[in-house]
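2024-03-11 09:14:02 DEBUG pipeline.ingest accepted 1 chain
2024-03-11 09:14:02 DEBUG pipeline.ingest length=396
2024-03-11 09:14:03 DEBUG pipeline.predict start
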Amino acid sequence: MRHLRAVTIAAAVGVAVLVVLTVYALSLGSSSTSATNRSECGASPGPALSPANVTGDLPSSFAKGSIQAFGSNDSSGIFGGVSFYDRNREPFDSLPALGAFSPATSATQDLTNQTSGYFAEGGVFPVGWNGSGWLIAGQTTIGPITEGSAIALRDGQITNLTSLVAPYFQGEGIWIAGWNGTGWLLGGNNTQGAALVYLEGGTVTNLTALLPNNGPTDWVQGLAWNGTGWLVGGQGIFGALDGGRYTNLLPGSPFESGGVLAMDWNGSAWLVGGSPTGLAYVYGTEVRAGPSPSPNVGGWVNSVVADPSGGWIVSGGTYSDGLYSPFLAAVTANPAHAGVVDESSCLPGAFDGGWVQYGAWAPAFGPNALLLVGEGGTDPSTFTSHAAATVLTVGA
């Protein structure tokens, strides 16, 4: 296994590189504002936040692992990740973990044994809900063969999609997926570089050739749909995909020497985060550097979620003096007055020594419920850890 989605830049490029990366913190035509320290959770000028630690509700398969992603419908959430990860071996050792939780009934279902054959010696990375069923994807290793794998789960029935997608992710895996109302866009990499495919029903369209300057060190790590087009990012990849046309946004962007890991649309602009620990606004095809969400240089933004106020809530992790630390921040919508409010005190202790890996709205947990998942107690040499999760009710 080449890398975990949890800390792609740190794991694959090397933690030492993170410590010396420059943070791009200047907005075009304006001055940037660094995160301000404060101890109160969810106070003005950021959005009101009410946290609830749900780590104890997770299936037992995550006790010694990491949550890489989740999906939520109105009644339940499905969590995917790994139950074990050893970076001291090559290829990296890992075991998959998958579980469901229904907040209304507090019912927990461990799906790991039921699905482990599809993700053997690998892990579950993207999990998504499209209104009628789940897409669950990631990586599997059987003998000498490593490849991307995927299943559809609907009404308790599993449909194996691996034969459709595996040819495009040979030697590596699928790290991210998004739904646009008719099909799934899948991103990851293979032994040749980044890979991008569109899956609609039983038809796969390979879009990888649209990615410019694609090489063996590149991969797709983040993507999102805004109603009319996609924004796609990763290591060596950053661009807009609209109607089969790809516009390269990487040259001159804050992520040219790092990677794009997450993005979200607030109705008028994209906010993009990655490594170095910087942010960028995207208006059409114009990229404007944004503020830094964390005072530490050695870090990365794993999650960007637009909030009802028109701003965004961003989260991720930092690395300093041999230790990982999570961070959470609120970002204002106006780049001319870019401001960042440190909300890290909203995170429970379960994330200590780790990072927030993924965040998204989770209607199963209530109105305006933002679910953040990741890990804590992470060993910098092996990445052994325990899972962590919290729900933030936004605007409460």
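2024-03-11 09:14:41 DEBUG pipeline.report The first strand starts at residue 49 and ends at 53.
2024-03-11 09:14:41 DEBUG pipeline.predict end
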